[in-house]
Amino acid sequence: MSTTTLKSPVSTQARAREHTARKRRTSPGWFLVSPSVLLLLLWMIVPLGMTIYFSLIRYNLLYPGENDFVGLENFEYFITDTGFMPGMTNTLLLVGSVLLISVVLGVLISALLEATEFWGRGIVRVLLISPFFIMPTVSALIWKNLIFHPVSGILAAVWKFFGAQPIDWLANYPLLSIILIVSWQWLPFAILILMTAMQSLDQEQKEAARLDGAGPLAIFWHLTLPHLARPIAVVVMIETIFLLSVFAEIFTTTSGGPGFASTNLAYLIYNQALLQFDVGMASAGGLIAVVIANIAAIILVRMLGKNLTQQ
């Protein structure tokens, strides 16, 4: 009596994947790409290695001869520094607030532009996207001198028109001012991505929903928002990576003050390196910031991958 063995589909797929991976490793394309990969690794590993080295020694620009090995002492000093917790808190508040403003207003503005027809809509789209192409330093100067200035700013003129006392926004509400400036810069990016995604939405589904009696809010909630799940995830991931390193806006407007009221981790590292000349402590802070950024990136990538697999 003979028995027949059936090949498992799982094992067949595994062998196929292994064959494909082996073919990719031996293909000419791998050898052609390897110089660029090696150059990129050197471009990253050399600065990272120097940062790790400086973080383990006592290196102050005022005392260049003292290069004693201190181990993890710089990390301990950076974490216990008086500016670390305010910097961490301000970083989280800045990233979370800008993401919330960008996503919510981006979805609403994109939906409004997509749903309404009016003369000059193309010009409005260009104007909405244009702030994204302005350099951060230039936009920060515009907000500082033309909008937030307590004497000659636009908001001061509005306050005086209604008989109220003008507010020095950068002195009284420094973190809120930074959030508004950064949101103004990154909102156009969200609008660009979400508006492009809305244009790819199947119009036949909307027409079918209208024939079934669905109103604008029901169509937006049940059709538009689910369609924007992937673009929103992409916006959140990309903006988070860049928002963790916001520096120019703070340096140009508030210089991290008053006190540590508007200091984030990026500005705190700059403060340690170029204002207090403590390169070792700043290098330790840079490595801590890299770890935090990588943790955030891993979480966001997993969220994005989970979102894509569910679509």
TrEMBL record:
Keywords, A to Z? Cell membrane, Membrane, Transmembrane, Transmembrane helix, Transport
Q: State whether keyword Transmembrane applies.
A: yes
Q: How does it sit in the membrane?
A: Multi-pass membrane protein
Q: Which residues cross the membrane?
A: 30-54, 92-113, 125-143, 175-197, 232-253, 273-301
One of its GO biological process terms is:
transmembrane transport
Q: Where in or outside the cell is it found? A: Cell membrane
Taking every annotated instance into account, which residue ranges of this chain make up the domain ABC transmembrane type-1?
A: 88-300
One CC-aspect GO term: plasma membrane
Composition-biased stretches (Polar residues): 1-14
UniProt main location, coarse:
membrane
Q: What PROSITE patterns does UniProt report for this protein, alphabetically? A: ABC_TM1
Which residue ranges are recorded for the region named Disordered? Answer: 1-21
PANTHER family in alphabetical order: ABC TRANSPORTER PERMEASE PROTEIN (PTHR30193)
Query: What protein family does this chain belong to?
Result: Belongs to the binding-protein-dependent transport system permease family.
What name does UniProt use for this protein? Sorbitol/mannitol transport system permease protein
The scientific name of the source species is Pseudomonas lutea
